Amino acid sequence: MSAEPAVRAVAPRSLRDRVSDRRVFLLVLVVALGALMSLLSPYFLQVSNLLAMTQYGAVIGLLALGQAFVILGGRGGIDLSVGSVLSLSGIFMGLLAQNLGLSPWLAAAATVVFGALLGSVNGFMIARLGLPPLIVTLSTLFLYGALAQVLTNGGQLGGFDREGFAALGQSAILGVPTQVLLVLAPMFALGIWAQNRTGFGRRLHQAGTSDRAAGLAGLDVNRLRFRLYLLSGALAALGAVVTNAWLLTARPSAGTGMELQAITIAVLGGIDIFGGRGHLSGVLLALTVVVVLSWGLQLAQVGNSVQTGILGLVLVGAALLNNLIGRKAPA
């Protein structure tokens, strides 16, 4: 008897298809928004404006990266405190550089550690004490923001314009802002690699998809989530370092409102608000969309309240899109 080769049906790679669709959607949206903003403001496509836009994007991108990791971890994970962590970390760096005379580079390293400690406060209360992420991070949003104001009496701190530190925020390499090339791009590259090529990425998706299944597989879900909030705090503090190098001043309101943008970018990029699904490459594209939108609206002299409302609509639209994609996904 001649045996005929068995024919195997290849299951559609639905998740990959969905990610590809999201990428195409975001790319089209970037082009459309760029065209629209160039009509609203004749300055939008100027080289100086595009450079300033990418400098701003480097800061909010770091916050969005941390936010994406927290949301991917599941159990309603969210970090509303990232903007206040950035503000307080920037002030901490200013105190070290201006009041104590510490090298800006050493102050920057200490600031990242300080931001990780701020994030670990969130992580401890959420992962160890079992408190709701929304309540915890909303509380630290107010607490950290108030501390930044109290420590400076609402003023600004400096001490950064020495030892070549300004080059991190004000120079460019081959036309690309230094903070994009040496900070944002490596952080996203490392994050994408960790998500897709390491055991950390697999554990992240397991925890985000099902606590119980992850626990049965021997995963310490609480420890993982604690580390995610610590990571979010460290990335927000890194954003403070970039901001201080860019503006050469530490301001207590530097991160105000950035938490909404960070969440919008993560969700628009395809991160499932319930955790476990989504890719950081989509978040990078969503970052471009939100930066183009926000910066273009500022150039068009659209009021802050209107800008906030538009970002809110984008967030709702992104959540609806994620929900629609999830319903179409096969069980």
Give the helix/strand layout.
Layout: H1 14-40, H2 47-72, H3 82-99, H4 104-128, H5 133-152, H6 167-170, E1 172-173, E2 176-177, H7 178-197, H8 199-209, H9 211-216, H10 221-247, H11 258-268, H12 280-299, H13 304-328
Antiparallel strand pairs: 1-2
Short characterization:
It is a multi-pass membrane protein. By secondary structure, this protein is mainly α.
Sheet having the most strands: 2 strands, antiparallel
Q: Look up the CATH topology.
A: ABC transporter involved in vitamin B12 uptake, BtuC
Overall structural class, as computed from helix and strand content, comes to mainly alpha
Q: What is the H/E order?
A: HHHHHHEEHHHHHHH
Q: Number of DSSP strands?
A: 2
User: Helix tally?
Assistant: 13
Strand content: under 5%
The first-to-last residue Cα distance is 39 Å
Q: Give the overall pLDDT as a whole number.
A: 86
Give the name of the CATH architecture.
Orthogonal Bundle
Measured as a percent range, the helix fraction is over 70%
Shape: globular
Number of domains: 1
Main location: membrane
Membrane topology: Multi-pass membrane protein
InterPro entries: ABC_transp_permease
GO molecular function, one term: transmembrane transporter activity
Structure description:
By secondary structure, the protein is mainly α. It has a single domain (46-315), classed as ABC transporter involved in vitamin B12 uptake, BtuC. It is 73% helix and 1% strand. The chain contains 13 helices and two strands; from the N terminus they run ααααααββααααααα. It has helices spanning 14-40, 47-72, 82-99, 104-128, 133-152, 167-170, 178-197, 199-209, 211-216, 221-247, 258-268, 280-299, 304-328, and strands spanning 172-173, 176-177. Strands 1-2 form a two-stranded antiparallel sheet. Helix 3 (82-99) runs antiparallel to helix 4 (104-128), helix 3 (82-99) packs parallel to helix 5 and helix 4 (104-128) packs antiparallel against helix 10. The longest helix is centred in the first third of the chain and has 27 residues, at 14-40. It is globular, with a radius of gyration of 21 Å. Residues 1-13 have low confidence and may be disordered.
